[in-house]
Design a protein that fits this description.
Length: 193
C-alpha cells in the first residue's frame, strides 16, 4: 500500500515505512527507564490522571532518530502542500501501553499564540507504530464532518508512519493483550497568523 493523504483533514498515512529492525532499535533506547505518563491539566502543569491516560513514556533526543523523523515531516510538508514553517522538534516520546493502557481523545496543540511556548507552537504531530503484537490499542483520529464527529482507525502495522496537524483530536483505545509501542513527535514553529 502506498502513502495516502486525506486532503480534508491533512492526515497522512505511510504503511510499513520504517524497518522492523529499526523499530526494535528505537524501543531499545528506553531500556528499563520507562516512567508513568502524564497529561496537561487545565492549569498547564503535567499531572498523572489514569482516567484520561494509562501508559509509560521515555524521552529521547537521539540525533539519528531526529534525522529519521525530520525526513517524514519534510515529505509531509511537500505532499500536503501545507508548507508549515517548522523550526524544531520537541524531545521524542516513546510510549508503552500494556494491557489496559490507553489515551483518551485529546489534541496536541492549537497552533495559535494562546499555546505559544518560547515563541513556538506545535503544528504537526507524528506517530510511528513500533510494534504490532498486541490486541486492541487502536489509534484513532477524529474530525468533524457536517457537524458530526467521524473517527478513522489507523493501520497498526509495524513501521507505519502517521502525520497530522496537531489540532486533530486523536486517541489510543485500551490494549486488551500484549504491549503496544509507539513513537510520538511534535514539530513546532512560529504561531500561525
Amino acid at each position: 500500500m502506498e502513502a495516502s493523504l486525506n486532503e480534508e483533514s491533512g492526515l497522512f498515512v505511510y504503511p510499513h515505512q520504517v524497518d522492523a529492525g529499526v523499530c526494535k532499535r528505537i524501543i531499545g533506547l528506553a531500556g528499563n527507564e520507562w516512567e508513568a505518563s502524564e497529561v496537561e491539566s487545565d492549569l498547564g502543569s503535567d499531572v498523572l490522571d489514569t482516567s484520561l491516560r494509562r501508559s509509560e513514556v521515555f524521552w529521547t533526543r537521539e540525533e539519528w532518530l531526529i534525522a529519521l523523523i525530520w525526513s517524514y515531516m519534510d515529505a509531509y510538508n511537500e505532499v500536503s502542500g501545507l508548507s508549515y514553517d517548522i523550526r524544531s522538534v520537541e524531545p521524542i516520546q516513546l510510549t508503552k501501553y500494556g494491557k489496559g493502557g490507553f489515551y483518551d481523545f485529546h489534541v496536541d496543540g492549537f497552533g495559535s499564540k494562546k499555546w505559544e511556548v518560547g515563541g513556538s507552537v506545535r503544528k504537526l504531530s507524528m506517530t510511528i507504530q513500533l510494534s504490532e503484537d498486541y490486541e486492541g490499542g487502536k489509534f484513532q483520529v477524529a474530525r468533524l464532518r457536517g457537524g458530526q464527529k467521524e473517527v478513522d482507525t489507523m493501520d497498526k502495522s509495524i513501521g507505519t508512519v502517521i502525520l497530522f496537524p496537531s489540532v486533530l483530536e486523536h486517541r489510543v483505545l485500551p490494549v486488551t493483550s500484549g504491549v503496544r509501542y509507539s513513537l510520538v513527535a511534535w514539530f513546532s514553529g512560529p504561531a500561525f497568523r
